[in-house]
Amino acid sequence: xxxxxxxxxxxxxxxxxxxVLIYVDDMAIAGKGIPGVVPFKQxxxxxxxxxxxxxxxxxxxxxxxxxxxNCLIYLNQSAYITQVLVRFGMSDAKPVSTSLAVKHGLSTxxxxxxxxxxxxxxxxxxxxxxxxxxxxxxxATQTHPDIQFSVNLIA
Length: 155
Prior knowledge:
Number of strands: 8
Strand order of the largest sheet: 1-2-3
Helix content: 25-40%
Largest sheet: 3 strands, antiparallel
Structural class: alpha+beta
Number of domains: 2
Radius of gyration: 21 Å
Shape: elongated
Number of helices: 5
């Protein structure tokens, strides 16, 4: 059964047996124990050349850390966020306790009004566009839901 465009889930007796996450040429396989995962990988390798990189540690700019004793998985995008800050010339930015004040004060009157202003601000930092920044921030909301409201507002 397909759970979304990239995640496939195999259910047996109302329990998840296997999950396969695929995005372009990256794939992660998860299952309850090795007995469920190994046969799937063996069958897949009959038709496709797939390198086995072992336990998942990094996928799609997300660091994956496991705490097996407490059955927890942590997702971390700090390296990605650092790259975004450098890319957009904000590596010296200081953290704040909230990403946007409750009364943010943004309004359409702050929008670029003239064509000259729009051309000046359409790109910055060597031609990187505002939409690239917003897209980068949208991707970061996967592990930072605390910035979701702010990012959606500026989007």
